[in-house]
Amino acid sequence: MSLKEKVEAALENVRPHLAADGGNVELIDVTEDGTVKVRLTGACGSCPMATMTLQYGVTNAIKSAVPEVKEVLAV
Question: What's the domain count of the chain?
Fold first, then answer.
């Protein structure tokens, strides 16, 4: 399984939680050095708590499932 596939699988675990609030997360890119770029969409894209959602929800889920990820960035 590629790094991108592993990240996508980790995001599938987060999506139901985001969808409950009308949002979602889109995987934009995964670089070979372990940087993941995502975009919060729907209600999550404009939510005042989006930074916390990205840091504590999305980033933690990705790094827990895919330890080779070094950084998760919102784009």
Answer: 1
pLDDT in tens, 11-55: 999 999 999 989 999 999 999 999 999 999 998 888 888 888 888
Domain limits for position 16: 3-74
* HEC sequence for 8-25: HHHHHHHHHHHHCCCEEE
Look up tokens 């996508």; give the residue: 8
CATH at 60: 3.30.300.130
Q: Long-range contacts for 48-52 (Cβ within 8 Å, ≥24 apart)?
A: 50/74
Spell out where the chain has E strands.
Answer: 23-30, 35-42, 71-74
